[in-house]
Design brief:
The protein has 440 residues and is an alpha+beta fold. The protein is 24% helix and 49% strand. The strands form five sheets. Strands 10, 11, 12, 13, 14, 20 and 21 form a seven-stranded antiparallel β-sheet that branches. Strands 15, 16, 17, 18 and 19 form a five-stranded antiparallel β-sheet that branches. The chain has a three-stranded antiparallel β-sheet with strand order 1-2-4. It is elongated and about 170 Å long.
Length: 440
């Protein structure tokens, strides 16, 4: 009897375990069945009411609703609560993916879903990639990466998939042909002041014998004739003094000539640049000098250059209503390298104006004053103290230079290009006609 009771007890235990296993398997099925009752598709819209549903199960629902294959990586996992009261299947799928922070892209009718960022390559037709990099980086999330390659004119962007449509639209708006500006410049230098030629010619003659005389020639720029009379072509002051204490006479000619003003066209260039891009012109020279760069293990020398002369920087900005905002920075400078260090004497100004297309404006006030004295005379005699002044002529120049800059900007349009190209086309046609005449 004990064996029979033991067998009955074991059979009951097995039956209980089987019932428990069946119950465990039935509960998820019932739950899934309950969830499926909260899913419907009507008139192309999805109706969902799910709580803590597996995200991959929800993706399967949208795969059926959209008719598109969906592949989810192993890193796609978690629960999601969804309540949709009639939504377009693709909009609902995008909402679920954004909620879980997932990225996706579609390729050949299949949507690939992952937690990794999506990378896209954009080849630009007009804009420079490095110019757009800062703008795109500012609008993308912090974890995004924007790489600009100007050599291949390409942008490589790695970011969340939900930002890609906005990035594509922004790039299309920014990748447009840039506006070009042609700037006509006239740089005129006005020199005014005293440009002097100062000197004295003297002649000492004994009255008893006119052949006994001493005189200087050419110190005043003019001569005294051998007969004692002044040269008629001379301009200046002539004096003849007869001494009452000795039988001798003294003659002198003073030259003091001056010119007041002259005008020189320093340069008349035409500069063409892109909108908001700087253009420059330098009329002068670059003086080299060396600087030492001290590193942790060594010291190297770098050659730098000091630009002196007449320098002009231009930056045009074309506004939406067709005006041109011009930033003009003219500079007149002189410099030297003393002891390996640059020394510069400069006059410069910075101007910013708003003008119409083709309107001229003037930048002035760049004034420099300079005095220089040059001595001419008889060698050796001109260097004798006191007496040497009789054998020496001094030429003094005092100049005041003012630089006037006339600037006329033009927005380059197809019509303006036709005007610029017309002389070239005429020259080419004349050249072709000349070749034809030579051949025939």
């Amino acid at each position: 009897m004990s064996n029979i009771k033991r067998r009955a007890s074991n059979e009951g235990l097995r039956l209980g375990l089987v019932l428990l296993l069946v119950l465990c398997l039935a509960v998820p099925a019932l739950a899934a069945q309950k969830e499926m009752t909260n899913i419907s598709l009507a008139k192309g819209k999805v109706f969902l009411n799910l709580k803590d549903a597996d995200v991959k199960s929800v993706l399967q629902i949208f795969a059926k609703a959209t008719g598109v294959n969906i592949v989810a990586g192993d890193d796609v996992k978690g629960k999601v609560t969804v309540t949709f009261s009639g939504i377009d299947p693709k909009d609902g799928l995008e909402a679920v993916l954004r909620t879980k922070g997932l990225d996706w892209f579609e390729d050949h009718g299949t949507i690939f879903i992952s937690t990794k960022k999506i990378m896209r390559t954009f080849y630009l037709g007009n804009a420079k990639p490095s110019d757009l990099k800062a703008t795109l980086t500012a609008v993308l999330p912090a974890e995004s990466v924007v790489t600009a390659d100007d050599s291949y004119n390409v942008l490589v962007i790695q970011t969340s998939s939900d930002y890609l449509p906005r990035v594509e639209k922004l790039i299309q708006e920014l990748d447009v042909p840039p506006v070009q500006v042609m700037v006509e410049v006239k740089m005129i230098q006005i020199t005014s002041g005293l440009d002097g030629n100062v000197g004295v010619d003297a002649k000492y003659t004994r009255a008893s014998n006119p052949n006994n005389y001493a005189q200087t020639v050419g110190q005043a720029g003019k001569m005294i004739n051998a007969d004692g009379t002044a040269n008629n072509t001379a301009q200046g002051l002539f004096a003849h003094v007869l001494s009452i204490f000795s039988a001798a006479s003294f003659e002198a000619y003073l030259s003091a000539l001056a010119t007041n003003q002259k005008i020189d066209v320093v340069a008349s260039p035409r500069l063409t640049t892109l909108n908001n891009k700087e253009a420059s012109i330098l009329i002068g020279q670059k003086l080299p000098y060396k600087t030492d760069v001290v590193g942790q293990t060594s010291t190297t020398q770098v050659v730098n250059f000091l630009s002196v002369g007449t320098h002009l920087l231009l930056t045009p900005t074309v506004t939406k209503n067709g005006f041109i905002r011009m930033r003009v920075a003219p500079k007149v400078s002189e410099g030297t390298i003393v002891g390996g260090l640059p020394q510069e004497d400069t006059t410069e100004t910075l101007n910013e104006v708003m003008v119409k297309d083709g309107q001229t404006f003037v930048v002035g006030g760049l004034i420099k004053e300079k005095d220089s004295t040059t001595d001419y005379g008889v060698p050796l005699l001109m260097d004798i103290p006191l007496i040497g002044q009789l054998f020496r002529k001094s030429v003094t120049k005092r100049e005041k230079n003012e630089l006037l800059v006339f600037v006329t900007p033009h927005i380059i349009t197809p019509e303006y290009l036709d005007i610029l190209n017309k002389p070239i086309e005429e020259m080419t046609k004349r050249s072709e006609d000349s070749k034809a005449l030579i051949i025939h």
